[in-house]
Hints:
By secondary structure, the protein is α/β, with parallel strands linked by helices. The protein has one domain: Rossmann fold. 38% of the residues lie in helices and 13% in strands. It is built from ten helices and six strands; from the N terminus they run H-H-H-E-H-H-H-E-H-H-E-H-E-E-H-E. The chain has helices spanning 3-21, 41-46, 73-77, 96-104, 111-121, 123-128, 139-145, 149-161, 184-191, 219-230; strands at 85-90, 131-134, 170-172, 195-197, 207-215, 235-243. The strands form two sheets. It has a four-stranded parallel sheet with strand order 1-6-5-2. Strands 3-4 form a two-stranded antiparallel sheet. Helix 5 crosses helix 8. The protein is globular and about 50 Å long. Bound molecules: zinc ion (2 copies). The site of one zinc ion has 8 residues, from helix 3.
Amino acid sequence: MPLATAAHIARTTARLFLDSLLPPQCLNCNAVVDRPGSLCADCFSRFTFITPPCCEHCGIPFEGAVIGDLVCGACLTDRPAFERARAAFVYNADSRALVLKLKHADRTDATVHLARWLRRAGAELIARCDVIVPVPLHRWRLLMRTYNQAALLTNALAKLSGKPAVPDALVRIKATPSQGRLDRVARRRNVAKAFAVQRPAQIAGKRVLLIDDVLTTGATADACAKTLLMAGASAVDALVLARVPTSGAAFS
Length: 252
Ligand SMILES: [Zn+2]
Ligand SMILES: [Zn+2]
């Protein structure tokens, strides 16, 4: 077992032990709550969980009544390689702390609870998929961070749903600069040819459900979907925890 993984497991175990001694905390702000894995009333009121109507393809939420096709302008002009993307909640100033916590701090114990949110948001996509695959981190980032939050979510969701996970199906072959403030086109260029399939036998002919923590412009999910389709996947859907509510805009 790599040292980083062992250290991470030790930290998570220590945290789980400490958590068992303390009252349960809000997933977002650490206020005391009744049930483990829930949000406090204040955070709950500020979180925007995504419900229909939303774009049939990319899942971007529509405001107000929608008449006619439920496809957003961005998907009409430039349809992504994935068939459908769905997200549990909107990524904004109020939900950002939760996503960052999962990315940079040792709050990986929260993934079990967050996988339940994924299951709710992506029930239809989970039901029709054959395998679940995470968006990979580049090896260097993985070394620095010690774990890939998308892989943790994938494993937790596989356990909950009974669908098989292939955590190392995709690899990142190009270290891409941070997507930070790039727009849709720049992000696409940034991640084009950044991925490769290293388990083609487990992907060929399969409908893949791709997992990530955040979907911003969809450029990463699009690049992963293209790579998986070229390796023989029959179709690709994407399921993420949070998505930026406007297409083509970088969130900062
Ligand atoms: Zn809270
Ligand atoms: Zn769309």
